[in-house]
Amino acid sequence: MAQAKPRPSRPTATVAGNTGARSGGRLIADALVAQGIDHVFAVPGESYLDVLEGLYAVREKLKLITCRFEAGAVNMAEAYGKLNGRPAAAFVTRGPGACHGAIGVHVAFQDSTPMLLFVGQIPFEETDRESFQEVDYRRMFAPLAKWVTQIDDAKRIPELIAHAVDVATSGRPGPVVIAISEEMQKHLVDVPDIGPAEVSPPHPDPAALEKFRALLLKAQKPLAIVGGSCWTEPGRAAIRDFMTAWNLPATVGFRRQSLYDQTSETFVGDLGVGSDPALVAMVKEADLILAIGTRLGEPVSQGYTLFQAAKAGSGSGVPIIHIYPDAAEIGRVYRPALGIVSDLNVFALAAAKMAPPKKPVWSAWTRELRALRLAGQAVPNYEGTLNLAQCMHDLARLLEDDAILTCDAGNFATWPPRFVNFKDGQRFIGPTNGAMGYGVPAAIGAKIAHPDRQVIGFVGDGGFLMTGQELATAFHHGVAPIILVFNNSMYGTIRMYQERTYPFHVSGTALTNPDFAKFIEAFGGHGEVVSDTADFAPAFRRAVDSGRPAVIELRMNPDQITSRTTISAMRAAARPAATPPAPAKRPAKRPAARPKPAKR
């Protein structure tokens, strides 16, 4: 296997040539260029006018993407970082702008995505007067970001932005928030730019690799869970080669479908929201867990039920080998039999070199798990005219080999992972923190990052009307994603939980929607409405052929609340006391009013 850099390298940046006094706003733009940042996603604000002027000066090196809503801008930057393994920057104005953008910071934090968020700030001389839109961002973003800082001295701009990139991309990647005070951006200073630092990533201890191999050879039913972020192509290929050579069953963590070739005979499914119950039951039989890059959080562990919680002085019931780039995460919830601190790509390259056993004793176990995966992909005979399982099968055949698929949060998001086997060159990304409103901006950010690749966005009717207006950004910047809107006229996930806990009582979850096809047509895009299974594939082909941003509205059977159950079935299984509420009494009809005599 060809060797490659373990992390995505930042683009080579030229830091020479900038001499003499520069404003703080120009220094910020030049510092981003020096660090290899090539995209900025922003909603403009008066609090960083001087940065906008600086970005104008470097417009040939740094592309400014003007967005319509701060949450959309930050989610675009997050999707860019998730796909490329290196950060984009987002800019928002102070106060309301920062609050709107905070959701994207939370996505980047829980998804371990490198990202920079710059927030315009009040003049620092006005601090603590509750000035117009004043917020203390160190306090606001402290639990949401890896690091939060504020630049009040323009001389420190190159230093602090360089460090911000280092923090965002090292260890467990994540977001960094940088507040930039208003008057600092106007100050003229003469300081040199700072380029990227070459830092060797953490390598696995050779002794730990030997123990890793020994523990694996003792297992009868091992299972790998692949997760994390910033995987490179060589790293992905290496972990696939390792799994294949050892014939190990591989799952992916919640919304980490991008990380493993699902056409492989070793891929057995995903662990997260909407996982196959049959797979979850089999995971409980595993006698060794290889947690490679995954955090073993609440979705992966099925609400902390799959593994035994850490107890002082004891290991878990099933041995866990946890490989992670940040030592602080290893043993945080589950005490491992072995923890290995390593860059994930470096570990994968090392694991691929391990000599596998000639006849793994778990081969039958792997085949059994793979058979479950294939059985779960069979198309059920759903009621209604639109069978989404068949639509997903049709979509899989129509996707290009390097297609990128983005996903919002909601019950609809379980259809693609169940019924599509994503190929090695394809990518499927979504928010592991369950943030609605992610899918459309992420699709636009993905198309901006990779304009030559096919990009499909999945979103529910609820999530679409949170950030669907960002399609204006797609038109403005000349990119054409295709958005599939799953329309069941409700907040489906909440309705599901509502029916489980309070059957028959529908409260606050019903929605009234527009014609989504006409919505995109109002921009000059391509719109389709699909209510029958046979109409989906032709509609998708027409959307692709249009070459324009497109929306395909999928009008679902609202009773089919997930791919595995219906509202009717949930109600039928409800406790006997859960009876339908009595129909509301209609008010008695009033006698028709007598017509008044016409005036003469």
Question: Care to describe what's here?
Answer:
The protein is 34% helix and 15% strand. The protein is of the alpha/beta class. It folds into three domains: 22-189, Thiamin diphosphate (ThDP)-binding fold, Pyr/PP domains (Rossmann fold, 3-Layer(aba) Sandwich), CATH 3.40.50.970; 206-376, TPP-binding domain (Rossmann fold), CATH 3.40.50; 388-572, Thiamin diphosphate (ThDP)-binding fold, Pyr/PP domains (Rossmann fold, 3-Layer(aba) Sandwich), CATH 3.40.50. Strands 3-2-4-5-7-6 form a six-stranded parallel β-sheet, with helices on both faces. It has a six-stranded parallel β-sheet with strand order 11-10-9-12-13-14. A six-stranded parallel β-sheet has the order 16-15-17-18-20-19, with helices on both faces. Helix 19 links the parallel strand 19 (526-530) and strand 20.
Quick synopsis:
The protein is of the alpha/beta class and 600 residues long.
Helix fraction by DSSP (H/I, runs of at least 4): 25-40%
The domain tally reads 3
Into which percentage range does the β-strand content fall? 15-25%
- The secondary-structure class comes to alpha/beta
What's the CATH superfamily of the largest domain, by name?
Answer: Thiamin diphosphate (ThDP)-binding fold, Pyr/PP domains
CATH topology-level name of the largest domain: Rossmann fold
**Rg over alpha carbons:** 26 Å
User: Major beta sheet, specifics?
Assistant: 6 strands, parallel
In which order are the strands of the major sheet placed?
A: 3-2-4-5-7-6
Apparent shape? globular
Please mark out the parts with pLDDT under 50 across 5 or more consecutive residues, or reply none. Answer: 1-17, 587-600
Number of strands: 20
